[in-house]
Specification:
This protein has 338 residues and is an alpha/beta fold. The protein contains eleven helices and 13 strands. The longest helix is centred in the first third of the chain and has 22 residues. Bound molecules: nicotinamide-adenine-dinucleotide (NAD) and uridine-5'-diphosphate (UDP).
Length: 338
């Protein structure tokens, strides 16, 4: 049966893809976003893809009155909580903004949910809570050891949600720890649109391929990995949002606290990603090896067994499709939504 889902951060990269999946599955979607890192055009594109639109509320999750009004006006069944700031480097220089947006914002949201009696939430956490892992693959019981203010905000919100769930057995919380989301909707209408200089590998490679940037800087080739470059678990954003839909049903069926990795279980190096993107795009990706990026870890990939077991979910899309879909989005929208 369709649920009414409040999607915070719903006009962002992952949130907009979640809106498509939710609408296609027959849910009613309310997006609340302050547009600090996104464009309303993303929601117009969601409308174009689904022939149905989410309701959009331009507001901040720290605005208690705006949240109360949403819960007053709509019978919300569950919240998908994507809203937050996410740039690791920026979190080091602007820690207070990160704690305010991500931690205070989540507290204000939970207070409004509690006042309205909304018990179910699916939260965007991150593999960054594991820090530099002692071993791979990383299971959910691995030690938590964030290495940036951003990572600490995710760990703190996980803690708050854990205590909130423990206070009332009727509440249901999914803490979804994402590995590295990449790719775009196959329509090429929505995708990742970083503002300014892209911090992440895939948007940077895409911008090199489309001619916006000269070359990729490969941050170090002297790690203890197969080719010396950093290894990550890249997951197609459509697989990621499929995992969210499964988690939404699961929290509705099973009140409790559910901590779940969303990754493929496969590690891919920077140079393997470059080769896959060249293949998918037919373009050459010039690159230069430079120094390691401070704070980077050598390798990180998920043990996705719990997601398979609890959610009957497994990533379906391979690296070729991740690159092909990122490329289609980048080629069709060389300046993103602008
Ligand atoms: P994004 O920046 O594209 O989306 C976040 C959205 O939240 C944006 O639309 C932004 O405008 C909105 N927002 C930010 N602060 C807000 C506030 N105070 N009130 C209302 N709206 C606010 O990022 P994304 O890649 O879609 O990430 C979504 C979530 O997933 C984030 O919480 C992020 O930390 C988490 N996550 C992302 C990644 C990744 O690599 N993309 C990995 C792990 C976890
Ligand atoms: N990376 C790189 N050049 C870039 C951006 C990233 O070599 O311009 C490398 C980075 O060192 C890491 C991998 O690509 O090994 C993934 O980095 P990203 O920032 O996308 O994800 P994260 O490090 O946060 O997992």
């Amino acid at each position: 049966m369709g649920q009414t889902v409040l999607v915070t951060g719903g006009s962002g990269y992952i949130g907009s893809h979640a809106c498509v999946a939710l609408l296609e599955a027959g849910h009613t979607v309310i997006v609340l976003d302050n547009l600090s890192n996104s464009s309303e055009i993303a929601l117009q594109r969601v409308h174009q893809i689904c022939a149905r639109a989410p309701l959009f509320i331009h507001a901040d999750i720290r605005d208690a009155a705006a949240l109360a009004a949403v819960f007053e006006a709509h019978e919300v069944d569950a919240v998908m909580h994507f809203a937050g700031l996410k740039a690791v480097g920026e979190s080091v220089t602007m820690p207070l903004s990160y704690y305010d947006n991500n931690v205070t914002g989540s507290l204000v949201l939970l207070q409004a949910m509690e006042a309205a009696g909304v018990n179910n939430i699916v939260f965007s956490s991150s593999a960054t809570v594991y820090g530099d892992p002692a071993s791979v693959p990383i299971g959910e019981n691995s030690p938590l050891n964030p290495t940036s203010p951003y990572g600490w905000t995710k760990m703190m919100v996980e803690r708050v949600l854990t205590d909130w769930q423990h206070a009332d057995a009727g509440r249901s919380v999914a803490l979804l720890r994402y590995f590295n989301p990449v790719g775009a909707h196959p329509s090429g209408l929505i995708g990742e649109d970083p503002r300014g200089f892209p911090n992440n590998l895939m948007p940077f490679i895409s911008q090199v391929a489309v001619g916006e940037r000269d070359k990729l800087h490969v941050f170090g080739d002297d790690y203890a990995t197969l080719d010396g470059t950093g290894v990550r678990d890249y997951i197609h954003v459509l697989d990621l949002v499929d995992g969210h839909l499964k988690a939404l049903d699961f929290v509705a069926a099973k009140p409790g606290l559910h901590t779940i990795n969303l990754g493929t279980g496969q590690g891919v190096s920077v140079l393997q990603m470059v080769a896959a993107f060249e293949q998918a795009s037919g373009r050459q990706i010039p690159y230069a090896v430079v120094a390691r990026r401070p704070g980077d870890i050598a390798q990180c990939w998920a043990d996705p067994a719990r997601a398979r077991h609890l959610l009957q979910w497994e990533a379906q899309r391979d690296l070729t499709q991740m690159c092909a879909d990122s490329w289609r989005w980048q080629q069709g929208n060389p300046c993103g939504y602008r």
